[in-house]
Amino acid sequence: MKISKQRVVIIGGGFAGAFTAKYLRRYAAHDFEIELINTTNYFVFQPLLPEVASGTISAPDAVTPLRYMLPGVKFRMAEVTGVDLDAGKIRLLQGTRRFPQTLEYDHMVIAVGQKTNLSLSPGFLEHSLCMRNLADAHELRNHVIQCLEHADVTKDPDVRRRLLTFAVAGGGFSGVETTGELAEMLRRTLKFYPNINYEDIRVILVQREERILPELSPQLAQYAAKKLRKRRIEITCNKSIASATATDVYLDDGTRIETGTLVTTVGNGPRTFSKNLGLELQRGKIAVDQFLRVPSCKNVWCVGDAALIPLAPNDSGETRYAPPTAQYAVREARVVAKNIVASRESKRLQSFAYQPKGSLVSLGNYKAVAELFGFRLSGVLAWVMWRGLYIGMLPGFSTRLRVALNWLFDYFLPRSIVQIANNPGVATTYRRYAKGDVICRPGQIIDGLYTVISGGMESRIPNIGKEEDFVRVFGPGDHWGERSLADETAAKGTLTATEDTRVLILQRSDFQNLSAAFPPLSEYFRKISDKIYAPSLRGGAEKHTDESS
User: Is residue 18 predicted with pLDDT exceeding 90?
Assistant: First the structure.
């Protein structure tokens, strides 16, 4: 008797998610229908992000398309909005019109990772830069180049000092590598800025523990600190950044650093998806058992940074947990793939246990520190091994070749100082519709507040059990969408352009932020909504023209 395929849905395309799909495909491709959902269509090799920010590696060469990386795995670019754990259904939004969809699963693997929690300290959310994805690396690179461009021409010494001071919060792997690459970028590009000397620049690494790189031995951490200080990088330990403004950073002892650049590599927290699952979070993560299963949930697994994975107790008998590193994520992916296969075949599951091979940290300027298989290395040899190991970990031959060529060219060629323009994230956009165009359909998630500039629109909502539909007509100056945006619900009717129409759209998140910050505006929209829509709810379809907008 032929057994039908089970559907495994993996949420997240980082190390844990992508390698889970890869191993499942390898172990039991004929037994499972494997689908991976991610908000972007590429896999980011996060350890290379500091080199993308510094210009050592071009951005397209540091990522791999998930469709290319995972042949035989169905990929869906969408946003997961929730899960019905009892029914085994995933709710998501996909496509340009963002219609809600439902996807059933037999097994679900949660691999959404974590986000940088910038709400822990005042000013971080408004003024700090992160280093978690490709957009972050682009933003940091553009920001640094902007600082150099302005510092080269300004005559104001205070402005110049702030522009040329760069602070990094966190002395772990990510913080040290970001600091090293930032300093190297500044050193390599200053020849294009004749009015700036390297002595004018301050790069400050702030670590709240007693030394940087606490994951490594004290000897290697001391070597790393020595090499960084030799390159005029200031290291401040036993202190943390308490707050930030647009022009200053304040440490917890009251020290003030005049800078407009703060890079944050600390303060991880759960994603909204994890918090909305209805599961109890421990240490901001989803607790799993030794088999990587989520307790009390049928066929739900969790791996990567989002999971709190128990390890064997230490010598003191204290429970240890898997750290959020790529090495662990790849091994977790292998174990969870084997366990999904084993659960289908009613075989014994494998407990997760892993002894890492070691750690490597690049310091920039062709230096690194490493602990591999019990051996400690530093200097150029460690740097060569660091690059060799990362080349081996990159997915796909073409990606490895492109990264290797980037490194080769960087040795002989000057760094580029091209400032790649990013979308500035404007709050409003204009759109044009022809007569008869359907602008929005029932069930669609509205993307913003629509205000008619010219032309006209008609909204038609079916009145169930009534003779007439509820109809609302919009002319220049009228607005539509505030009701669904305020209630966070999908559109209930069809919005159509009655003539050639031009509209101004205030983006969804900006509308919600503005309404929350300015109560009179929120109250205005509430009154308008009650005036227009309340009659249809009381009974009797009426035609309305909103003249008060």
Answer: yes
